[in-house]
Amino acid sequence: MMGDAEAAVESMSDLPQGRLVAGVKAADPAACGQLYDLFGHRLHRYIAVRLPGDDQLAEELMLLTLAEAAHRIRSFNPRKATLSAWLYGVARRHVQRELRVRSRRKSVPASAQVSLDDMREQAIQEDIGDSVAARLQAQQTVTELRRCLSDTEMEVLILHCMHQLSAIEIGKVLGRSERAIDSLLRRARQKARERLAQDER
Amino acid sequence: MNDKEFEARFGHVMKKAEPVPPVSEGTRERAVTKMVSAAKAPARGFLRRRLSSSPEVLSSRPIVSKETKPMRRLAYAVVFLVVIGALVGGVLIVPGRHSGTNLLVQAAYAMGASDSLHVRGDRNLADEYSPWNSEPGSYEFWFSPEGFRQDWYDKDGALVRSLGGIVATGQAWQYFPDQSSGKGSLFTYRLSPDQLTAYVQVNRERFANGQLRVAEIAERGHAWTEAAGEWQGKPVSVVVEELTPALVTGEQRGTIEYYLGQQTGALVGMAQYGPSAEGRPLRASVDLIEYNLEIPQDVFQSDAPASATVRDGRYAVRPSGDIAFYPGADTMTQSLLGSALESRHQAIMGTAPWEEVERRYLSVLKEDPENDEARLYLGRLYTRWGLFEEALDLLPSGDGYWGDLNRAFCLDALGHRQEAVAIYEKLKNVGHDSVAEWARLGLERPTWPLDLDIKPEPGEFLLKPRPEWRASASSSSAETTPQAAIDGDPGARWATGSEQAPGQWFSIDFGSRVRVSRIALDHWGVKCYDNGWARGARALVTEDGVTWKEVPISQGGPQQAAIVSLSPPQLVRGIRFELTKQHSPEWWVICELYVFCPTG
Predict the structure, then answer these.
(1) Are residues A104 and A132 in the same domain?
(2) Nearest chain B Cα distance for residue A152, angstroms
(3) B261 touches chain A (CB under 8 A)
(4) What is the DSSP letter of B237?
(5) Both A74 and A11 in a single domain?
(6) Do A156 and A60 share a domain, yes or no?
(7) DSSP H or E segment with residue B518
(8) Does A101 lie in the same domain as A71?
(9) Beta bridge pairs of residue B578
(10) Which pLDDT tens digits describe chain A residue by residue (201 residues)?
(11) What CA–CA distance (Å, rounded) separates B247 from A13?
(12) Which contacts (CB < 8 Å, 24+ apart) does range B110-113 have?
């Protein structure tokens, strides 16, 4: 599924973004649908990874992001950033807001806690071959990664490796220069690679 | 591992660890609908609205382009500076505003300003939930379908508490400014939009005519208890609240967490709400008074017996609220309440009509005739009312405590002085100060608690004296003060110190307006000063502290209080009694002045 969406983005990249933006600006349902097809899944995935455990929230925030984007499409300036960088920027603000709220809580809210039973069910639904143990192992790795990487480094890696954003685009999302992102990426890659290599040993 | 391999590996691990389920069905349609309506919504802000009305301006250039005429640029700059100046001034300079919180709080009612119900008034009436707590001051509330804000001010006009909520997001908060530091405590709540809507609706109805309608609150049957307690040696306050079905809907269960935002971000309390076993909507919460205190989660689990002990419990009951002991409440609630029984009863006696209390205890006894608690409290009630024989049937014998004491009162009143004295002798040194004190009084002379005439009529309740009440008089005897007449203790009295003469006066300033139905002057007290009633008096009340008008007052007698009846009940700021007749040799005595308020 993910591959399809990415392919769609690739194929659309030749088209003038202006037409899509103008359509959304004019509240054209077809253009809005197109925006969703291009970015809905990617944004959802980005939010879900940044806020693990609460699928419903991720979906809501994705909808909020798209609605806000449609509302503020007039402020989008193609000379400053690509549409995807701009959208990730909007999504990131929502994520940061939610993280701020969570940081004030002592514990993970009940809504964001997933019991092992649920996990098993999900895993079975998605892929029968996927064992719960493998997932737990992966989660442990991610937990370790989060521990040895800073939040920003983790975020840069996610945007780069999972969402294929370029350093310039990531810079626009995070509000930093391309050079800063480049060095962040290099450092993050180095640390994460060492960590992953340890796992493989 | 080269970069490409690493990226593939990293992506794989992330996907494995956090598999993202497919979006739910119909999400695309929802997204499109939302986007279309958002794109159509008017742009926020003056400049954007102006610009969006002429799309060609927007085409590609920035808001203030190079082509913009210098005058226009100057105008934008002036507007910008004025806005920034106003914001900075509003937040930093205007006294009584506290950091950014007020902006947040203001958002709630600003959103619905067009359909906002705005009420303001005297704080005593607004704090109907916590009558013990109503310092003089004022309030100002806004309720709109989009949100609400409630502000309480002290008598100097400084903000003491602000409550607000935004329906759309389910966010609500409470803010307590600290006047000395200029900072404050911010508590945030996450509720459902339904709950907030219900809250707004209930309040819009309550304030529909611009004034709090007390009767409707009574109908809503809202009751709560609040108590200070201890948990692991740390002070905590415990609130158990019974809510209307509208506020806690259906089978909904949940937890409200309180956080202290501005200073530490620490968890300061939790509340659980949901239906009790009986289906009664209930909310129980534990607030930590010391905000930096950390508490383990399991104290809130319903099967973990709470080790909090409640001391100095306070309890307020709305007249038609059911004071039942929440038999369906969870274990925590019950055990917290258990030790507060005594203090709770005391407060019930003070705030609910006594007939109502009687009805409730009678219904308990109907179910369980041997219920000790009901027998004791009903017996005490009957003693107070002078139904001594009925009381003796109910009161437990030999508890060495309130049961025995009240038995002695009854025996005393029925003429069995010797038996009464024997009990007083036993009780005069018991640990409980009040019991011992009453017993010692009983030994001095035949005693029972109150003049039989002084009790609330149906539809009114006895208002407890408040610290801000001020009494004054034309003169006082050496060992008495006017304030003793309003200290809640009928054993302490005020007396003129000279024989009654026209022109002698006694006056009370309530500090703020109180709705009063009756005021009784008790010259009898617990020590039976049987001759000190006013032989002739007139009474004057004031609503604004300036203009006074005379109101009728009944003539007192040997065992009869002088009563001022206000029908219909009136808002009274102060009352003044003046003697009109000469009498010798008796002084004028007031053991206690009782103020009764209407319940509806």
Answers:
(1) no
(2) 16
(3) yes
(4) E
(5) yes
(6) no
(7) strand B505-522
(8) yes
(9) B505, B538
(10) 334 444 444 444 445 677 888 888 888 899 899 889 888 988 988 888 777 666 778 888 899 899 888 888 888 877 777 888 889 988 988 888 777 766 554 444 444 343 334 433 443 444 433 445 566 667 677 777 877 888 888 888 888 888 888 888 888 888 888 888 888 888 888 888 888 777 666
(11) 51
(12) B111/B144, B111/B146, B111/B147, B111/B166, B112/B142, B112/B144, B112/B145, B112/B146, B112/B147, B113/B142, B113/B144
Distance CA B407, CA B424 (A): 10
Sign of torsion over alpha carbons B583, B585, B590, B596: negative
Widest CA span in chain A: 56
Residue A116 inside a domain? The answer is no
Say if A102 is an interface residue toward chain B (CB within 8 Å).
Answer: no
Q: Does B255 touch chain A (CB under 8 A)?
A: yes
Interface test with chain B among A37, A105, A185, by most B beta carbons within 10 Å:
A105
Of A49, A83, A109, the residue at which a domain comes to its end is A109
CATH of the domain at A139: 1.10.10.10
- Among A1, A67, A189, select the one facing B6 at the smallest CB separation: A189
ipTM for this prediction:
0.74
**A166 domain residue, yes or no:** yes
| B39/A107 touch (CB, cutoff 8 Å), yes or no | no
Domain that holds residue A132: 125-196
Cα radius of gyration (chain A): 18
Interface test with B, best of A55, A128, A191 (most B CBs within 10 A): A55
Identify whether A114 is part of a domain. no
Chain B: give the shortest CA distance to residue A74, in Å.
7
For residue B553, give the DSSP letter: B
Please give the interface size between A and B, counted as residue pairs whose CB atoms are below 8 Å apart.
138
Distance CA B108, CA B102 (A): 10
Chain A residue with the nearest C-alpha to that of B60? A77
- The full set of domains in chain B, from first to last, is 3-51 (no CATH), 111-220 (no CATH), 221-339 (no CATH), 354-444 (1.25.40.10), 460-598 (2.60.120.260)
* Tally of residues, chain B: 600
Q: Three-state SS for B5?
A: helix
- The rounded distance, in Å, linking the Cα atoms of B329 and B197 is 26
Contacts 24+ apart (CB under 8 A), B432-441: B432/B401, B435/B401, B435/B402, B435/B405, B438/B405, B439/B405, B439/B408, B441/B491, B441/B526, B441/B527
Contact A74 B28 (CB under 8 A): no
Question: From the CA of A113, how many Å to the nearest CA of chain B?
Answer: 13
Q: Establish if B20 touches chain A: CB-CB under 8 angstroms.
A: yes
- How far is B323 from chain A, CA to nearest CA, in Å? 32
Q: What is the pLDDT of residues B353-406, one digit of tens each?
A: 455 667 777 888 888 888 877 888 888 777 766 677 888 999 988 877 888 888
Reduced 3-state DSSP string for B498-514: EECCCCCEEEEEEEEEE
* Number of domains within chain A: 2
Do residues A88 and A140 share a domain? no
Same domain, A33 and A98: yes
Q: Per residue in B3-12, pLDDT tens?
A: 788 888 888 8
CA distance B508 to B576: 6
Rounded-to-integer distance, Cα A149 and Cα A160, Å: 15
Distance CA B446, CA B412 (A): 6
Same-domain status, A69 and A138 = no
Please tell me if residue B27 touches chain A, with a CB cutoff of 8 Å.
Answer: yes
Name the domain boundary from A109, A142, A158: A109
**Residue B531, token pair as written in the block:** 């001759």
**Do residues A28 and A73 share a domain?**
yes
- Between A129 and B539, whose confidence is greater? B539
In a domain, A56, yes or no: yes
